[in-house]
Amino acid sequence: MYKIGITGSIGTGKTTLANMFAIFNIPVFDADREIKKILRKKEIKQKLKKIWPLIIKKDHIDKLKLREIIFSNNIEKKKLEKLLYPYLEMELKMFETVNYKKNILVYDVPLIYETKTENRYDKILLAHCNTKIQRERVLTRDKISDTLFEKILASQLSYDDKIKFKPQVINTNNRLFILIKICILLTKILIRLKSKNGKTKINT
């Protein structure tokens, strides 16, 4: 099984990149999507209410307020991570169990380097784009303030820090360019897997 990790700062196009792999019927584990599902669990809401009572209103989580809290205070951010990450790990293991026969799996995980989990993957792709485009994407998509965007950005490793790990950088300014890069990358991986497994059929 060949594992590809996709990472990058907020708004750099990680999901777009992951969706390109999905076009080729490759299973994708989307960490952000799984976190959203976890946050809908009743037990999680109850635990969140004990820690931050003001973010729960009529059984609904005020995600904007939660973001403002955790990205303004690193201690609060660690509390949330400690609560959610065990659930995320369970979902990840379930994903791998369901797809154990697949030769290639893709993981859309924003904080690979921050959580020091880079050794889980055979290859890591770093999504990167123009800063102006990144800002526009986030402010339009998430409806957050420029101040909160800067706080979120500051909580993540910078691009310069991430490239020290020598990932394969994918520029996400252009969707066609991404698709071409993915096609080339998959061709190389499939040739490598076929060479390694002889005549074994490659199941993506």
Description:
Helices cover 54% and strands 14% of the residues. The protein is an alpha/beta fold and 204 residues long. The chain has one domain (2-192): Rossmann fold (3-Layer(aba) Sandwich). The chain has a 5-stranded parallel beta sheet, with helices on both faces. Helix 1 (14-23) packs across helix 9 (175-197) and helix 2 packs across helix 5 (74-98). The mean pLDDT is 90.
Short description:
The protein has 204 residues and is α/β, with parallel strands linked by helices.
List its salient traits:
single chain, alpha/beta, Rossmann fold, globular
How are the elements arranged and paired?
Layout: E1 2-7, H1 14-23, E2 28-30, H2 31-39, H3 42-51, E3 56-57, E4 60-61, H4 63-70, H5 74-98, E5 104-108, E6 123-128, H6 131-142, H7 146-155, H8 159-162, E7 168-171, H9 175-197
Parallel strand pairs: 1-5, 1-6, 2-5, 6-7
Antiparallel strand pairs: 3-4
Helix pairs in contact: 1-9, 2-5
